[in-house]
What does this fold into?
Amino acid sequence: MLREPVSSVVDPTAGGMSGNTGRYEKRLSDLAGLYADEAAFKEQLFSTADPVVYDVEDFKPGTQGGDLIYGVTRMNPGRIGNEFFLTRGHIHAKADRPEIYYGQSGHGLMQLESPEGETRIVEIKPLTICYVPPFWIHRSVNIGTEDLVMVFVYPSDSGQDYGIIEASNGMRHRVTAAADGGWSLVENTAYEPRSADSARTIMKTYA
It folds into this structure.
């Protein structure tokens, strides 16, 4: 049975879209353990009444292979200590599934990490398309002073694995504010590299 075509209108200012079938938000408390400065995290958590860090609206036609999920992520600007607001990050449960991000407003980064621990950074501004290849762990970071709004698209059967970052005590690098007003990468001293066997398991092809 053929599905009916669908259209959604994106609001690059508010960060939402019409026709969404779902919405969720992540507050600062949902990101516990992701930042190096635990004292700064707790101070901001209790002094700002647990603010929303990012929210997502999406359209999910189903979970069958060959279809697509799309949506909009809106991230607030902010920092914990010298680290910028970020998303939890994930790899796809079917790790050979890619993803596309398309910048609408704001200034951010896509932080990517290979199973072996290599880091790549893609800068995202309005009209920037970021291709996240299969097998890459990825998270978004808002390095600007305004909301970061991005459209995303990924295969419906991808799924998300958030535990891979937790198991390594975070990603290998942290994105921090630089003295010149920009950003820099610093080593995450708590990072636990994945074993060669674990990396090979992630890299196997899924049906």
User: Anything to note?
Assistant: The chain has one domain: 22-203. Helices lie at 38-47, 163-167, 196-203. The CA atoms of residues 104 and 126 lie 5 Å apart. The chain is about 10% helix and 35% strand.
